[in-house]
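Folded chain entry
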Amino acid sequence: MKTHLVRITNDLYDIAARLSEIDGGYRIYYDTRKKRYEIFHENGGIETPACLPPYDRLDQRTLLYVRETRREYTEKMIAEIDGQNRKIEEDREREILGEMRDKTSSLGTYLARGGNDVPTYDRL
């Protein structure tokens, strides 16, 4: 491990211990160069970066952040994002179809009045 990373094993709110309860492979380090906490995961003697909590202190938010960013929640997050994207697409489709319906109606009214020059889409 790099010398600028200081392992945190005891902290005010026992976040390091509580993090180990989530998964015994989690390790908290403080990067003295970047002035931030970093969470690593040790598996088979190899530590790899797990996440970088966006907080300047260790507290309950860190635990929540680690839980939310665990691999097992990835599928759930992807499904939520896909659902949101689907809703955005459906809303946009409804908006476009509504605009087309309004323009078609305007064109029908224009032609019913005997208009010879068909107006551009923007003028309808």
Summary: Strands lie at 5-8, 26-31, 36-43, 46-51. The two ends are 68 Å apart (CA to CA).
